[in-house]
Amino acid sequence: MSAFYRRLAPSLLGLFIVCSPAPSEPNAGADPDLFAGRRLLQDVVPDTNNLIQYHGRGLTAAEYDVQKRSELEEFDTVLKQKFGNGFRLHATKHFNIACECNRAQMRQLEEWITVFYESVYPRYFRYEINRTFRIIYFANRTRFIRITGMEVYGFYRSYEQTLYTYVGSGPGTLWHELVHAFIAANSRRTYVRQWFDEGFASFYEMAAVRNGTFFEGYTNWRHPALRAAIRDKKLLPLRAALRGERLAPEFGYAGARFFFCYLWINGWMEKFVQAYLYEILPRYPADQLDAAIHAQLEIISGMSLEEMERDYHRLALELEKNQKLNRMRQVAR
User: Fold this and answer.
1) Closest CA to 281 of 195, 191, 201, 196
2) For residues 262 and 121, what is the distance between their CA atoms, to the nearest angstrom?
3) What are the start-end ranges of the H helices in the chain?
4) pLDDT tens, 207-257?
5) Phi, psi angle pair for 59, to nearest 5°
């Protein structure tokens, strides 16, 4: 299977259990005025040669160049203090990238990041990005684990606005963690249910960039575990799985990921993500979130959660690992 179509190095913890969480995030999502002063994407005018829209304001080309050079200088100082020399740095509009790699690898990373952002962010997220994300690529997995102490393939620290991974982890790892970054920039993340956070991010573990075009909508290496759990009647009922703060082991990444595949196939994913982030999270206290989420899913789908569960199981059993999905299927009732 081409590296374009898979998230490299599947988890050593297995396909169906919950992986280790990223390091703790002090005060994550504590901002009570998350969207105050932020422009809707639809209101941001396109960049021109003379004026670049950046973090809520227009900068001249000269001002923008000074801003990005300052950001990279600060980033370089942090890198040298924490990790030493050896990083190649590159700036794009929304991402400052540090990589222990060669020029060709940096160009590949820039393409993966840029195409993903342009293809995905405007479809799900309503507000202009008001921060610059940092992305750190270590030279290899051994160095990544030694420095971070994390035996995962990548993670995003929202309080640092920094994504950590390593060369060879694959584009799916990058895209998975970028979704976490985008969610953190558009929510009080302490309220975000883990099944939503990981299901949405895991959906993008398997995708492709070809000639500058982004392709999405695939099952992946997690799918056989889901099929086995359904056949063995070990999968947690959907209503119970979509409840509570933590991702239930009896649903796991496989169940959460395919739930987003299921939404995508039926054309409900974009509507649900936006409703979750901008209508449910800001409006309901934590103890009312689950009921509001369940009600929203039933409105969007026109089905009860129990009907959705039966259809979800049926579809999961029909599909194989690494299979391209088709959108807008006819739902069997």
Assistant:
1) 191
2) 20
3) 61-83, 103-124, 141-148, 171-184, 194-203, 223-231, 238-241, 252-265, 269-275, 289-301, 305-318
4) 999 999 999 999 999 999 999 999 999 999 999 999 999 999 999 999 999
5) -115, 145
